[in-house]
Specification:
With about 325 residues, this protein is of the alpha/beta class. About 50% of the residues lie in helices and about 20% in strands. The chain has a seven-stranded mixed β-sheet with strand order 3-2-1-4-5-7-6, with helices on both faces. Bound molecules: S-adenosylmethionine.
């Protein structure tokens, strides 16, 4: 693993389910815990919103939260209930302030992604795939950047996202699952693929299948960039309720932020389920075991405590 910046969020060692549950119910304690785990200074606004919204929910959902901390139900089960709760409360956040809370890590991720793109050699036309791109604003920014730095004269932009295909700008050619599976690999396969903040939102039934189909539809020499948040725990982490607690808080953050920033995806009636399960280190082995070619891999880890960001870069190599 090539780590640029590393770090771990602070955890509460040897703390049991009951204490963690009590912590989630108390606004003052929760706010203090959040500020020690990456939600301070720039992120004061989101921390205070979380400290207001989460404790009343946890107080009313004691069984749900403790069952989750004990490992009896999944993060996704809790997420669905929290999401319904917030919708019922009709929460509203100041989107501009929220963006300010998130710009530092989004900018740092952006720098790494653009550095990888900058490393490509020139080609006349470049095919780029945004996997789970929502409305594709970031992919359009990357396409414009690629033209500006002259790595290509023409960028053909493709997008695959089961929930937001209706909302994509005309510059992006929308692909369905069938399109992905039936791509003519010699003609239209991809030189560059980005999946930013997608995999922890994809249901495990098609989490690996979809990304692997897309990945194997890339050309030799393609760059595949996956961006994921969380500290990528390993399945062997010792204090289980502890890491479940961290994932719970990260999940609550994710839901609150996505309600504010990604309305079209969250409330798409055709695809109403907001799925949530953070990746573990082992999950990447699943992807890698299915890549149909040799590849190089590099991981850039950016430490923002609970909100740590990982940029996983695969370079597909020639079969021969
Ligand atoms: C948090 S948004 C990220 C959007 C965008 N990539 C970005 O960086 O702003 C997660 C996206 O993943 C998409 N998604 C969910 N399940 C998916 C799947 N099986 N395949 C591809 N995308 C999926 C959602 O529709 C949503 O647009």
């Amino acid at each position: 693993m090539n780590t640029v910046i590393t770090g771990e969020s602070r955890i509460l060692d040897n703390v049991g389910t009951e204490q963690l549950y009590q912590l989630s119910c108390d606004a003052t304690d929760l706010s203090a815990w959040l500020s020690q785990n990456g939600f301070s200074a720039k992120r004061d606004y989101i921390r205070e919103e979380m400290a207001q919204l989460i404790p009343p929910f946890c107080q009313h959902q004691a069984t749900l939260i403790t069952r989750y901390l004990d490992g009896l139900i999944s993060l996704n089960d809790v997420s669905q209930t929290f999401l319904s709760y917030l919708i019922e409360k009709n929460i509203s956040l100041d989107v501009e302030i929220l963006y300010q809370c998130l710009t530092d890590y989004a900018d740092d991720v952006d720098r790494v992604v653009k550095n990888i793109i900058q490393g490509r050699s020139y080609q006349q036309a470049l095919n780029m795939l945004g996997f789970g791109l929502c409305e594709g604003h970031y992919e359009i920014e990357l396409a414009n950047f690629s033209l500006d730095i002259n790595i290509a004269d023409e960028i053909l932009l493709y997008g695959y996202d089961p929930s937001t295909s209706y909302a994509m700008p005309s510059r992006i050619q929308c692909l369905t699952k069938n399109d992905l599976k039936n791509l003519d690999h010699s003609e239209s396969s991809f030189d560059l693929m980005l999946a930013r903040w997608v995999l922890h939102h994809t249901d495990p039934t098609d989490r690996w299948e979809d990304i692997i189909v897309a990945l194997n539809a890339c050309k030799n020499g393609a760059d595949i960039i996956i961006v994921e948040e969380s500290w990528l725990p390993s399945i062997n982490e010792s204090n289980v309720s502890n890491y479940r607690f961290k994932e719970l808080l990260l999940g609550f953050f994710d839901i609150i932020v996505n309600i504010a920033l990604h309305m079209s995806w969250m409330f798409n009636k055709e695809c109403p389920n907001f799925y949530l399960q953070y990746l573990r280190q082992e999950d990447f082995e699943q992807i890698e075991s299915k890549i149909n070619r040799p590849f190089q891999k590099k991981i850039y880890s950016l430490d923002y405590s609970l909100l740590s960001q990982h940029i996983i870069h695969y370079k597909l190599l020639d079969m021969s």
